[in-house]
Amino acid sequence: MHIWVDADACPNVIKEILFRAAERRGIPLTLVANQSMNTPPSRYISSIRVAAGFDVADNYIVKQIQTGDLAVTADIPLAAAVIEKSGYALNPRGEFYSDENIRQRLAMRNLMEELRSSGEQIGGPAQLNQGDRHAFANELDRFLTRSLASG
Questions:
Q1: Closest CA to 136 of 100, 89, 92
Q2: Three-state DSSP class for 104?
Q3: Could you tell me which of 5, 43, 47, 110 has the fewest CB atoms within 10 Å of its CB?
Q4: Sheet containing 96-97: which strands, arranged edge to edge?
Q5: Cα(72)–Cα(31) distance, rounded to whole angstroms?
Q6: Can you state the percent helix, strand and coil of the chain, rounding each to 5?
């Protein structure tokens, strides 16, 4: 198993949770971004800098992901591509994307994008709060426990 992080937009507090989990569990973790990323010294944690451009980091993650790998992303199209390749996708708020919910999330995302492009003023997502951090840490821990027990 490998954890891939869509790191350009991933909050630092979530990266810290991921760093601790990778180190504690001995799981490879790779941050993928179009800018340099600081990572703690670890044999499990690395970063890949991709070229700037629309979806370059996402496309890199999709090419690398293997069955059973985990992608951490808030990007719904990336999550859909990961699921299609039999990977798992978890957003920074602790919600797993699945076959059951990804189509609805894509439809909602597309609707919001249409509204924004037509000039509608729509706010973005709420700021990440303490409950979101706890939810993420708990879901990540449950997932890793299950995956490592069955793997």
A1: 92
A2: helix
A3: 43
A4: 45-49, 29-33, 3-6, 70-72, 88-90, 96-97
A5: 9
A6: 50, 15, 40
Tell me: pLDDT of 142 over 90.
Answer: yes
- CB atoms near residue 130 (< 10 Å): 8
- Give CB contacts under 8 A, 24+ apart, made by 127-133: 128/11, 128/13, 128/14, 128/92, 128/93, 132/92, 132/93, 132/94, 133/13, 133/14, 133/17
Among left, alpha and beta (phi > 0; psi -120 to 50; other), residue 76 is alpha
**Tens digits of residue pLDDT in 92-137:** 999 999 988 877 776 666 666 766 677 766 666 668 899 999 999 9
The model's pTM is 0.86
What's the pLDDT at 107?
63
Tokens for 60? 């890199």
Alpha carbon distance 30, 61 (integer Å): 9
**How far is the C-alpha of 91 from the C-alpha of 81, rounded, in Å?**
14
